[in-house]
TrEMBL record:
Annotated keywords: Acyltransferase, Transferase
Gene3D superfamilies xref list: 3.40.630.30
Organism whose genome encodes this protein: Penstemon smallii
Pfam family for this entry, one: Acetyltransf_1
UniProt domain N-acetyltransferase: residue ranges: 12-201
Keyword Acyltransferase: yes
Keyword set includes Transferase: yes
Protein name: N-acetyltransferase domain-containing protein
Family: Belongs to the acetyltransferase family.
A Gene Ontology molecular function term of the record: acyltransferase activity
Length: 423
């Protein structure tokens, strides 16, 4: 893009992010974009000096910057200014199912034919699109998206998707009207504050911490046919940011000492169980609520003082969110049986207590809007988002498996798998 006037020529160049020379400039643009409406609360994100932190744990990723190059106007040297950026990553995920192709005879063959098998696709994800407020409505955002999509196609991605707030009209308009994306899924972001008191454990539930070699087959068995399930789940559960995978079972079944192992669990599972994993976002980024009045801050502080002074009352105190705070993200929430919701609630209690020990301000998760286990996830409505909007686009016509058809036109299922590497 070229802008001319008064002897000045300005060219916007989109190129790959250079950590050595771009980091500080990118942070400046991020800070400008984080400023909320005057007089209203806004959420500020600090990426702790690593602008790529939200994608660097994915199998393939890139960050692009839009650089404004100004020439002329009596200036001997050219002037360069970063005015926008975008991040993207690619992974292989489940996009649907197909009938199994049994290779045996008799009963075994019939069982294999009855079980659905996952259909995988190479999926790209867009996040962190930012354009400096002083350079908006110049087509820079569209230019960034198109260049990123070109990288997706070059690397074999079949679909691209992005997430945004449902009421972010500028973002929704850019992607749906100018970039060819369609509204796809509306999951819920659920946020629970970390109180000054601990959550009492459920005496009817035992919680067992699984090692990564046990968590992987459990997730593959339970989630392999769930939308957005990453085929490299082993990389996720073995990642240094994963604080653990936890399995909740009935008290009378077994505990950490009598745990028989994952193979025996598969052979004879209890009538109800639940599982989730905890991702440490605290070491990647911090959040801060800005724009709060002194009265609001004073009321929040009062609730914390009361909670610390009278912990046995288990008062729902407001955490210190008006200065930088960390958070944990819960992912891989699943379970089976009539008491699965109760067991998820117990696991969320454990996650809360772990977050308290590690100095976090909130615990967050994201699930499908119709997720049956949603009833067991404690959260505050005022901190949560009932409808996060995911938009999707088909990048090409040639697919590795055509049994799903066009994924963008498929109806939503009850569950989705939210990858913590991209939250």
């Amino acid at each position: 893009m070229v802008v001319e006037g008064g002897g000045v020529v300005a060219v916007v160049v989109v190129r790959e992010y250079d950590a050595k020379k771009d980091c500080k400039k990118v942070e400046e643009v991020e800070n400008k974009c984080e400023v909320g409406p005057s007089g209203k609360l806004s959420l500020y994100t600090d990426l702790l000096g690593d602008p790529i932190c939200r994608v660097r744990h994915s199998p393939a990723y890139i960050m692009l910057v839009a650089e404004l190059v100004v020439l002329g106007g009596g200036v001997d040297k050219e002037r360069r200014e970063i005015v926008g950026m975008i991040r993207g990553c690619i992974k292989t995920v489940t996009c649907g199912t197909k009938n199994g192709n049994g290779n045996g005879n008799g009963k075994d063959c019939a069982t294999k034919l009855a079980l659905p098998l996952p259909v995988y696709t190479k999926l790209a994800y867009i996040l962190g699109l930012r354009v400096s407020p002083s350079h908006r409505r110049m087509g820079i955002g569209l230019q960034l998206v198109r260049r990123l999509e070109a990288w997706f196609v070059e690397n074999g991605a079949e679909y691209s998707y992005m997430a945004t707030e449902n009421d972010n009209q500028a973002s929704v308009k850019l992607f749906t009207q100018k970039c060819g994306y369609s509204k796809f899924r509306t999951p819920s972001i659920l946020v629970q504050p970390v109180f000054a008191h601990r959550i009492r454990p459920d005496s009817r539930v035992n919680i067992i911490k699984l090692n990564p070699t046990e968590a992987e087959p459990l997730y593959r068995r339970h989630f392999s046919t769930t939308e957005f399930f990453p085929r490299d789940i082993d990389s996720v559960v073995k990642n240094k940011l994963n604080l653990g995978t936890f399995l909740a079972v009935p008290k009378q079944s077994y505990d950490a000492v009598s745990w028989p192992g994952i193979d025996d669990f598969f052979t004879n599972p209890p009538d109800s169980w639940a599982v989730l994993s905890i991702w440490n976002c605290k070491d990647v980024m911090t959040l801060e609520v800005r724009g709060a009045s002194r009265v609001r801050k004073a009321l929040a502080k009062t609730t914390r003082v009361m909670d610390r002074a009278l912990p046995w009352l288990h008062l729902p105190s407001v955490p210190q969110v008006f200065r930088p705070f960390g958070f944990h993200f819960l992912y891989g929430l699943g379970g089976e049986g009539p008491n699965a919701v109760k067991f998820i609630r117990a696991l969320c209690g454990l996650a809360h207590n772990l977050a308290k020990e590690r100095g976090c301000g909130v615990v967050a998760t994201e699930v499908a809007s119709r997720e049956p286990l949603k009833l067991g996830i404690p959260h505050w409505k005022s901190l949560s988002c009932a409808e996060d909007l995911w938009c999707i686009k088909r990048l090409g016509q040639d697919y590795s498996d055509g049994s799903v058809g066009d994924w963008t036109k498929s109806p939503p299922g009850l569950s989705i798998f939210v990858d913590p590497r991209e939250f």
